[in-house]
Amino acid sequence: MTKKKIGIVGAGIAGLAAAHFLTKNGHTVKVFEASNRIGGSIHSLKKEGYTLEYGPNTVLLNTKGMRELILSAGLWDKITFSNTEAAKQRFIVKDGKFNAVPTSPISFITNSLLTLSDKLRLLKEPFIAPFKATDNPSIGDFAKKRFGENFYYHFIQPFVTGIYAGDADKIAVKHGMKLLWNAEQNGGSLFKGFMMHMKAAKKEAALFVKPIPKNKMFSFEGGLITLCNHLAKDIDISLNHTPTSAELDDYDKVIFTGKAKSINQYIDQELLKTQLNNVPYSSVSVMHLGFDKGQIPDLPKAFGSLTLADTNHHFLGLLFSSQIFKHVAPDGKVLLTAIIGGARNPGLVEDPKIRQKIMEDLRALLHITGEPSFYEYTVWPDAIPQYHMNHQELLDEVKKFEQANPKFHFASNFVMGVSVGDCVQKVYDLSMKL
After folding, report:
1. Exposure string for 157-174, b = 16+ CB within 10 A, e = fewer
2. pLDDT at residue 132, rounded to an integer
């Protein structure tokens, strides 16, 4: 393999992971970051004894790229896995109360969110013809066909809100929920496809040099920024620096990991420039609330809850953060994290009364007494890219650009995956090719 001089634009997790893998492979790497800090959407902070996550709260150890990154970075023994009981239990808010998401066949049968007719409808799924490979259904169209209207409304739609803070009827399933699309296409039905996927994933995981626990959700004692900080120690990073096209001319390869509009200055194809300018993003805000345990005596031991599309609640999702990880709150304290805004309620992000509104929701649901002793609020404009129905057109133009300019590679989350795991896997695969 010829050793190369590689420039990476962006010091988020994708840029840092790419730099780590490429450096390990013997390349000379330089990372440029326009802001004054590393991490991108990963932003952890210790404050008054709480460990706060302003972006992703957890990561899954479910891809080869992520496992290789943690192991080669020397952080395998530093991982803090989530509380197993809490990680399994999730809720949907309906009729002013928490309704458990089923996690087993028995809990599915007894679940109150679906009628008997809805449950029987699901038995038809293996016999429903798959979409054609050339079709482009939304997540909504896909889920309604395979699961029925009520299942979509009660489970799929809130789940998509939890990932994208977006509208499931506007997101292309083959890009926004690639696992579902591939399972159906490969197996002829989701049931058969998932059986194939789980068998392949189990076989791949068995080849890894470390045993992989069933509970794959993890963080670190210092928050997810621990991973970024550790990676950055051995990487040449230039902060507060947006490289010019002339600077990037000095590199054999250039990897872009930033937001769509930030890449525009390096692009000479007008159609791609227009598409990059028009990549939709949802804006969200994150509210951290700390309480004494006595103020919430009946807090469920669960991951958290999502809300339905027509809910009158003001949060999209609520994380029981200190139930997931004990280290995020001081002894005797509870940390809750509310996610607000998104495509559903964009105006709430800047609502001056949002704290009051969220507290009204939480008092009704959790019977909280008194006021929080800790409060932190952060707005993330353009937080999550949306893979709308024309997303394939963007991917086609990106591919054309890369073919015409083999020096450049796109590894941003607006291209092929918004999760931390997706980003790491993409740059891991890329690093093996360069």
Report:
1. bbbbbbebbbbbbbbbbb
2. 97
